Amino acid sequence: MLTKKGIGTALACAIALGASSGAALATTINVDGVHWDSASPFDLTIQTLNLRESSVSAVGDVLTGYGQIGSINGINSFCTGCDLTFTFAYTVTGISANHVTFDDGSFQFYVSPAGSYSQANPNSATLGTPWVTMAGHTAPSADPSFITVGQLYGTVNGTVSNPTSGSDGIGLVDVLGGPAAAYLNSNTISDGIGGFADFSLNSSFLTKPASTCTSISPDSGSVCHFPIEGNGSLIGATVVPEPAELGLMGLGLGFLGFLIQRRRKAA
């Protein structure tokens, strides 16, 4: 029969098998072709590329935009045979001098075949299949210059409708759903009032319309509707769903049961 020492050894092997398998799963994440290393020291940093957005000037105006993800955790080869694109929208709820508060934030990310996205075509950002949806997270700003509480806070050089270099925005974002949601819904960013968001959002922007545009178009399908360009980053943490880890642990314990049964038959 299997001795106590043998059982202990087998159990240790089983746990090691489950743990090592779980660690391997936790390191490499792949969702619909979008992959990244959760063991990266930069995890989880999602940075944009080719971001364009509309101009706003008054309370009630809706800021819309689109773009492409350029890297995840500092790696730009994160999407095998695909493009990862996004659209977003926020509503202006307060303006005080060069400080603008936004609310009702929403994001939609899409995965589409590589080369599908064109910065000159806003509609190309939505050609793929949904990857994850997000929403703005309400939290007060540490800067008293913002007169209302919101989800995104913009500090503008130049004017609100015509920002110049050095303009930036900060805010918090929550993950809502989609195939990638289980890996991104970390709740690791404190909002300062007892709650937690999934990502912090940082952006920079300035007015730079496409050279083919002579005015701002009312057509949201035209690049001339989006005279502002910029970049941004979402910073959070990768989550590995527990059921997967528990399943692998079960595999390890199943291996232990196999060893015990085999020994009994031999006896």
Strand content: 35-45%
How many beta-strand runs? 13
Shape: globular
* Tally of helical segments: 3
Radius of gyration: 24 Å
Structurally, how many domains make up the residues?
A: 2
Question: N-to-C SSE series?
Answer: HEEEEEEEEEHEEEEH
Low-pLDDT parts are 7-25, 252-260
How far is the first residue's CA from the last residue's CA? 6 Å
The structure class reads: alpha+beta
User: What is the percent of helical residues?
Assistant: 10-25%
Mean pLDDT, to the nearest integer, reads 87
Main beta sheet, described? 9 strands, antiparallel
Would you write up a description of this structure?
The structure is a single chain. With 267 residues, this protein is α+β, with helices and mostly antiparallel strands. The chain folds into 2 domains: 1-30 and 241-267, no CATH class; 39-239. The protein contains 3 helices and 13 strands, in the order H-E-E-E-E-E-E-E-E-E-H-E-E-E-E-H. Strands 3, 4, 5, 6, 7, 8, 9, 12 and 13 form a 9-stranded antiparallel beta sheet that branches. A two-stranded antiparallel sheet has the order 1-2. Strands 10-11 form a two-stranded antiparallel sheet. Helix 1 (4-27) packs antiparallel against helix 3. 31% of the residues are buried.
